[in-house]
Amino acid sequence: MDTPSGLLVPSIKNLQTLSIASIATELARLRALASAGKLTSADLTGGTITVSNIGSIGGTYVSPIVASGNEVAILGLGRRRVVPAFCEEEGREGEVVRKEVMCFSWAADHRVVDGATVARCAEVVRGLVERPEGMVVRMR
Asked: What distance in Å separates the CA atoms of residue 61 and residue 29, rounded to the nearest whole number?
């Protein structure tokens, strides 16, 4: 989180057990504490996977590194932007169209998880971002 004190990375505990609404509530709580400079060490530790959204402050590309002792992976998100691209639809191949793109950069601790697993995870995340209606099926 971009705060007056600099970038802070609080951890949402047991995320896999929470509903979307509960995640949003916890994120709002952590954001308020971060803005007030009142995050505790418990709020800042215990994460396994970090999501860093530099796109929210205008960044396009990032090279994330796994920095924490317990962290297994990190995903860096760049800003969404519009670019010209070639259409891939049947009958429109080669036509130049407007396309929205966003850079996702992954890093992982290969002592814990192999690159193929990270690549498969990246494909799942990409699919959910490109077709968010798929998340509705998995919502709690």
From this structure: 28
A 10 A CB-CB count for 39 gives 21
DSSP for residue 10: -
Residues 80, 102 contacting (CB under 8 angstroms): yes
Q: Which residues pair with 86 in a beta bridge?
A: 96
- The catalytic residues are 110, 114
How far is it, in rounded angstroms, from Cα 54 to Cα 60?
7
Q: What is the pTM assigned to this prediction?
A: 0.79
Nearest 5°: the CA angle 36, 39, 42 is 170
Tell me how far apart the alpha carbons of residues 44 and 114 are, in angstroms, rounded to a whole number: 26
Q: Give the Cα separation of 40 and 13 in Å (integer).
A: 14
Model confidence over 99-111: pLDDT tens digits? 999 999 999 999 9
Are the C-beta atoms of 11 and 33 separated by less than 8 Å?
Answer: no
Q: In this structure, is the dihedral angle defined by the CA atoms of residues 109, 110, 114 and 120, taken in order, positive or negative?
A: positive
